[in-house]
Amino acid sequence: MKIKIIALAALTVLLTACNEHKTVEQVTEDLEEKVATEAPLEEEAPILIGEFKRDTLESRAYNKWFIQSYKDHTLDTESLPALKKGLTDVRVTVFMGTWCEDSQREVPAFFKMLDEIDYDSDLIHIVTVSEDKTEPAELVSHKEITNVPTFIFTKDGKELGRVVEYPLESLEKDMVKILSGQEYKHAYAE
């Protein structure tokens, strides 16, 4: 009986710890520790093409720029409550290039926002593209990807809007405009 109680208590502690929300500071510390404990790469990181999760961008090959951009982004805290509300039932697809400086700046900033509002970043669909933005063809065709990063926001299968290459005001403010249905045209809209 005592063994069952101890096992149940240990399982409860473990499950509670796994479900604990990490602050932006804790995520930053975890990422920095990861960099500090990994040996440096002997060669340049390969260009990724295809569908990936966030943890790939935090992996050894890419985490130096990911961590630096994550840390450098100053959150627009006034926009965060509206952003959290607006992302309910919204799907986000991010087209980016691991070779692209704009992607290296904006995508980590995007994840920092998601961390701050406790949004599950596993729900984000990340597609890394070739420099000419034609590969992977099955994922980019008919998406009109001209510049990266491109953040596409959809709800019930309908595109609400997109941020292309760089925000007009701030990533947070631009996203709030899109998610709240306000007038918004990205940098390359006609």
From TrEMBL:
Name of the protein in question: Thioredoxin
Annotated Thioredoxin domain residues: 33-184
Gene3D superfamilies documented for this protein: Glutaredoxin (3.40.30.10)
Entry's transmembrane regions: none
CDD domains from the UniProt entry: TRX_family (cd02947)
Lineage: Bacteria, Pseudomonadati, Bacteroidota, Flavobacteriia, Flavobacteriales
